[in-house]
Specification:
The structure is a homodimer.
Chain A: E1 9-13, H1 19-28, E2 34-38, H2 50-67, E3 71-74, H3 77-91, E4 96-97, H4 100-110, E5 115-120, H5 122-127, H6 129-137, E6 142-147, H7 150-157, H8 163-177, E7 188-191, H9 200-207, E8 212-214, H10 216-230, E9 243-247, H11 251-262, E10 271-273
Parallel strand pairs in A: 1-2, 1-3, 2-9, 3-4, 5-6, 5-7, 7-8, 9-10
Helix pairs in contact in A: 1-10, 2-3, 4-6, 4-10, 8-9
């Protein structure tokens, strides 16, 4: 079936972190319709095993495809890291984009020294996909990685700034950026989880002003635009694009926490409850 | 079907927190066989909606019942708070015990002033079941409650003690126990989540030595023993009781984190992967 340019772009995330990607897409492509699915009933994916992540991601992608989308964006690092090729194979020729490769590309462009650290969930770090994507672009890069499990809950709680938040950041990052770090410090840090941009201010204070903190969301949006142009799928209808939200659980929580991620008030009425 | 005394007691939790209850049961009833199911694939339940929690708890309870158990213990406050009556109705006449009522009873016994605070997950606090259970036992009790969402991740990460952990405890508890608390301080605090006993030392330092911190796990074990005696279901076989573990995801993580909760090394070989 030939995709129509007026169809929405489908975005999938395990929860609400992917809303940072939706926000970037809405800014970069204001005439596109966006259909977001957050699998909040089974969140977080970041502590789950690979097979489980693949099963859940396929189910969620299938839901979006059934609604009719012209492109899929896996707006979740854990799902991208573990399931992107499987989703691409299953739904071909539908274009399916992840967040890892764009994030790696932005980091390689930003880094002078080639020392790049990735922070993310346990499952993303375990998959090692960022290191692979970085080395494909710059073989002499020196990568390191750190799972920062608590950051997901903190972002969803709205614990984003202040002394305590910075102390928790230091708890995770001191062996990389602290006074007693044993290796030269990276000059670039990738926020390898879509929740982490909410902690960006605190993280920047902790790692210091000489470290570039890369949020892949912006690069993903650029990548989506390029792909839409290449496939001749840019929406040319008149008027503003719309956003529609689906969640698998607890619309109240989605509205409350989603507002933090979007930077605007999201109401329960805007959110559809779906089952997978 | 008449239950046989040699059958195991089934324990269910959304993850690994219920292992604190299993540990207490194994100590109190050393000759009983214990069959534990942790639904780690869909953990945490504490941030989910009521209907979802009921659906998941019924599926997990059904799995344990199918294996053959003489009693079910819902070793999870969130599942007890939201789904206990539904599980009891569905699997009657099988005895099904939760963790809330025993915890409330222990707190009422410990409290002099009648001022009792419950800390737990968002879903447990929202359900208000602890306040109801406490008031049923002591109508003039003055209850308060606080959702401490980050504590679950902290316990699972092994972040249990130290200055940073105490600072996070203060972040949640200062308006109840801090210098600027506006109401008289409670003299009793219920750990209304089976993860929280791992933070007990830090919590006791933060709330002060004059506050009794109640861990329902011990009281649950006493309640289970009384119920088994009443139903003539105590296992009278010779030899030590055994423990068998089932998880819905990521045996490695279950072994690693489960060891923290059990206080002994749990190996991957002891853990069976099951689907719900």
């Amino acid at each position: 079936m030939q995709a129509r340019p007026s169809l929405p772009i489908g975005l999938f995330d395990s929860g609400m972190g992917g809303l940072t990607v939706l926000k970037a897409l809405a800014t970069t492509l204001p005439s596109e319709h966006l259909l977001y699915l957050g699998d909040t009933a089974r969140l977080p994916y970041g502590t789950k095993g690979r097979e489980t992540i693949i099963r859940y991601t396929l189910a969620a992608a299938g839901k979006l495809v059934a609604r009719g989308v012209k492109m899929l964006v896996i707006a979740c690092n854990t799902a991208t890291a573990n399931a992107l090729p499987v989703v691409q194979a299953k739904f071909a020729p539908l274009p399916v984009l992840g967040v890892v490769e764009p994030g790696a590309r932005a980091a390689v462009q930003a880094s002078v020294s080639g020392r790049i650290v990735v922070i993310g969930t346990e499952a993303t770090i375990r998959s090692d996909v960022y290191a692979k994507a970085i080395h494909a672009l710059r073989p002499d890069a020196i990568t390191s990685a750190k799972a920062c499990t608590l950051f997901v809950s903190m972002a969803e709680e709205g614990m984003m700034q202040g002394r305590l938040v910075e102390d928790i950041c230091r708890y995770y990052l001191d062996d990389i950026f602290g006074a007693e770090a044993r290796t030269p410090k990276p000059d670039t840090m990738i926020l390898g989880c879509t929740h982490f941009p909410l902690l960006k201010t605190a993280l920047e204070r902790v790692v210091g002003g000489d470290v570039v903190v890369v949020d892949p969301a912006a690069t993903v949006a650029t990548g989506v635009r390029e792909e839409l142009i290449a496939l001749d799928l840019i929406n040319t209808e008149k008027g503003e694009g719309t956003s529609h939200f689906m969640t698998t659980d607890n619309q109240e929580r989605f509205a409350r926490t989603g507002s933090l991620f979007l930077g605007r008030t999201l109401t329960v009425e805007e959110i559809e409850l779906v089952d997978l």
